[in-house]
Design a protein that fits this description.
Blueprint: H1 6-17, E1 45-47, E2 50-55, E3 60-67, E4 70-77, E5 82-87, E6 94-98, E7 106-111, E8 117-122, E9 128-131, E10 137-141, E11 156-161, E12 168-173, E13 183-186, E14 190-192, E15 195-204, E16 207-214, E17 217-224, E18 235-244, E19 247-255, E20 259-266, E21 273-280, E22 285-293, E23 296-303, E24 308-313, E25 318-323, E26 330-335, E27 341-346, E28 350-357, H2 361-364, E29 369-384, E30 387-392, E31 397-401, E32 406-410, E33 415-422, E34 425-432, E35 435-442, E36 447-453, E37 459-463, E38 467-472, E39 479-484, E40 494-497
Antiparallel strand pairs: 1-2, 2-3, 3-4, 5-6, 6-7, 7-8, 9-10, 10-11, 11-12, 13-15, 14-15, 15-16, 16-17, 18-19, 19-20, 20-21, 22-23, 23-24, 24-25, 26-27, 27-28, 28-29, 29-30, 30-31, 31-32, 33-34, 34-35, 35-36, 37-38, 38-39, 39-40
C-alpha cells in the first residue's frame, strides 16, 4: 500500500477536491481502497483537557489537546459503534454503548482524557445510559424506541461503579413494571450502617420502578402514580431528587396530573418503605425547581393551564400561587448577591419574562414578582449565576443582568449557531452574510468584541484550562482553531487543518 505524506493528503482535500469521501478525489490517488472509506467525524466531546472526535467510518478516536501552546494530536481505535453516549458531569470520562450484541455480550467503552478506552461487557442488550450527578456511577437501561437485537426484559437495569478498581457491575430487574421505560436515573450515594447505597428510579407511564443497589445486593419496588383503572396515563415530565439521611425524596411533575408528587423512599429498614404525597400545584405543570429558603425546602412550579407560579411546602402540602402577566413555562433558579434564592421565568417566544424573589413570595405575594421586558420573544436562555444571555427567534440577542435589572440588546450575530460560557464570558458564534462571526461578551461589564471568521465553524468548545476553540467537522477532514479566553486576539490563535486525514491510508 502506498502511504502519501500527511501534508500531501491535506493539500489534495483542502485545495483541489474538498470532498467528503477520500475515494472521490480524482487525480490524487487512483484505485487505493483506503480512500474509499468515509470520514464520519462527530462533533468533539470535551473530556478532561482534551477534545475527542469520534470517526465511526474509520473506527477511531482523534484526540486534540493543548501542549505548551501548540495543538497536539493522536489517535486510538474506536472499539464500538455507539448507539448511546454520555459524558460524566465532571467531564472526565466519556461512555459509549455499543450497538452490537454479539455472542451474548454488549460492550461499554469508557474513554478518559488520554484517549484510551476501557471495555466492559453486559450480558443483555441495553440501549440507554444515564449518570449520577457525582460522576461515580452509570446506569444502563432499555430506552424507548431503540431497535432490539433480541428478547430483553424491559425492567432490567445495570449499575456500573466507575470509581471502583476494577469497575463493578450490578444488575436488577424491577418486577411489576409492565410498560416500556421512558427514562432512568441515579441518586448520589447514601451512607448507611451496612455501607453505601445507590437508588435508581425508572420512569414509566403511571408508575416508577425503584431499585436500591446496596452492599448486600439489590432491592426493588414499584410506586404507582395513578389509581387502578384510571383512564388517563400519568407520564413523568421532570423528576428531581434530594437525599436526606437514609431517605431519597423524589419530586416530580407529570402530564395527566395537576399535582406535584412527592415520593419518599426510606432505605434504612430490612425492606424499602415508601410514602407518596400529592401537592396541589396548579393545572398542567410545565417545570419544577427545588429551592432552599430560610423556612426550609420549597418547590417552585409553572403551569400550562394558567399563568401562575406556585411556591409549595412539601411538608404540609400547601402553598402560594401568584398570577403572572404572561404564561411562563421555564424556571432558571439562581442565587442573588443578597445570598437569597431567586428565579428567572420565561415562556417560549414571549418577550415578557419574570424575575422572582422567592423568599418574599409568601409575605409579599405578587410584589415578589417583577416583569422583565425584552425586545423580542425569547427562544433560549443561557445562564451564568445572575447573568443571562437571551436568544430570540430573530437574529438579535440580549444580555440581562438580573442583579441590576438591566437589559442590553445585542445585534449583528446573524443566525446564532452556538453559545458557550467560558472564562467569565459568553462566546457566541453566528452565521452572517459571507461567513461567520465570533463574539465575546464580558459578563463583568457587558462589553463585547467580535471578529469575522473564514472558518465555517460548527461550534464553540473549551480548550484546555484557559482557552476556547472553534471546530469544523462537516467536510470530514477536521479543522480546529484555538485561542485564549481573554480578549479576542487573532494573532495568538492556533490553527490545525485536516487532522482527521492523518493516517488516512492506513488500515483501520
Amino acid at each position: 500500500m502506498t502511504h502519501l505524506p500527511r501534508a500531501t493528503i491535506v493539500v489534495c482535500v483542502r485545495f483541489l477536491c474538498s470532498a467528503l469521501f477520500l475515494g472521490a478525489l480524482p487525480g490524487c490517488i487512483d484505485g487505493d481502497p483506503a480512500f474509499s472509506r468515509a470520514l464520519h467525524l462527530s462533533p468533539p466531546v470535551e473530556v478532561g483537557d482534551a477534545l475527542l472526535f469520534l470517526d465511526s467510518g474509520r473506527h477511531r478516536v482523534t484526540r486534540l489537546r493543548d501542549s505548551g501552546g501548540e495543538i497536539a494530536q493522536d489517535a486510538t481505535p474506536l472499539p464500538v459503534t455507539p448507539m448511546a453516549q454520555v459524558l460524566t458531569p465532571d467531564g472526565k470520562a466519556l461512555l459509549l454503548l455499543d450497538a452490537a450484541f454479539e455472542k451474548g455480550h454488549q460492550k461499554l467503552a469508557i474513554f478518559g482524557a488520554t484517549g484510551d478506552a476501557e471495555l466492559l461487557q453486559f450480558n443483555t442488550a441495553f440501549s440507554g445510559l444515564s449518570l449520577s450527578d457525582d460522576s461515580q456511577t452509570a446506569l444502563a437501561f432499555h430506552a424507548p424506541g431503540a431497535a432490539q437485537t433480541g428478547l430483553v426484559i424491559a425492567a432490567e437495569l445495570a449499575l456500573v461503579d466507575l470509581a471502583a478498581t476494577p469497575r463493578k457491575v450490578q444488575t436488577a430487574t424491577i418486577a411489576g413494571i409492565s410498560t416500556q421505560p421512558l427514562a432512568a436515573f441515579l441518586t448520589p450515594p447514601l451512607t448507611l450502617p451496612d455501607g453505601t447505597h445507590r437508588l435508581a428510579w425508572m420512569e414509566t407511564t403511571s408508575a416508577l420502578g425503584i431499585a436500591d443497589f446496596g452492599p448486600k445486593g439489590t432491592r426493588t419496588l414499584v410506586v404507582p402514580l395513578a389509581t387502578a383503572g384510571a383512564a388517563a396515563g400519568i407520564v413523568p415530565k421532570r423528576t428531581l431528587a434530594r437525599v436526606t439521611g437514609s431517605s431519597v425524596n423524589l419530586y416530580l411533575i407529570a402530564t395527566g396530573s395537576n399535582d406535584a408528587v412527592h415520593i419518599s423512599i426510606d432505605l434504612a429498614g430490612a425492606d424499602l418503605t415508601v410514602s407518596l404525597d400529592q401537592i396541589a400545584s396548579g393545572p398542567q405543570p410545565t417545570d419544577i425547581a427545588l429551592v432552599d429558603t430560610t423556612a426550609g425546602l420549597r418547590v417552585l412550579t409553572l403551569h400550562a393551564g394558567a399563568a401562575l407560579v406556585s411556591l409549595l411546602d412539601p411538608t404540609t402540602g400547601t402553598g402560594t400561587s401568584i398570577t403572572l402577566s404572561t404564561q411562563s413555562r421555564h424556571i432558571q433558579p439562581y442565587l442573588g448577591a443578597d445570598g437569597k434564592p431567586h428565579a428567572l421565568l420565561w415562556g417560549d417566544n414571549l418577550a415578557v419574562l419574570q424575575r422572582v424573589d422567592i423568599e418574599d413570595i409568601e409575605k409579599k405575594k405578587g410584589k415578589a414578582v417583577h416583569d422583565v421586558t425584552a425586545t423580542q420573544g425569547v427562544s433560549q436562555v443561557t445562564a451564568l449565576q445572575n447573568q443571562f444571555l437571551l436568544q430570540h427567534s430573530g437574529s438579535q440577542l440580549s444580555a440581562y443582568d438580573a442583579e441590576n435589572d438591566r437589559m442590553t440588546a445585542l445585534s449583528g450575530m446573524g443566525t446564532v449557531k452556538s453559545v458557550r460560557v467560558l472564562g467569565g464570558a459568553m462566546w457566541v458564534l453566528g452565521a452572517v452574510a459571507g461567513g461567520m462571526r465570533l463574539a465575546r461578551i464580558d459578563l463583568t461589564n457587558l462589553t463585547a468584541q467580535s471578529m469575522e471568521l473564514s472558518l465555517q465553524a460548527g461550534g464553540i468548545t473549551a480548550w484546555g484550562q484557559n482557552g476556547v476553540a472553534l471546530w469544523a467537522a462537516g467536510d470530514g477532514s477536521g479543522t480546529l482553531m484555538a485561542l485564549p479566553t481573554g480578549a479576542l486576539d487573532t494573532d495568538s490563535a492556533k490553527m490545525l487543518q485536516g487532522f482527521a486525514l492523518t493516517g488516512a491510508t492506513e488500515a483501520p
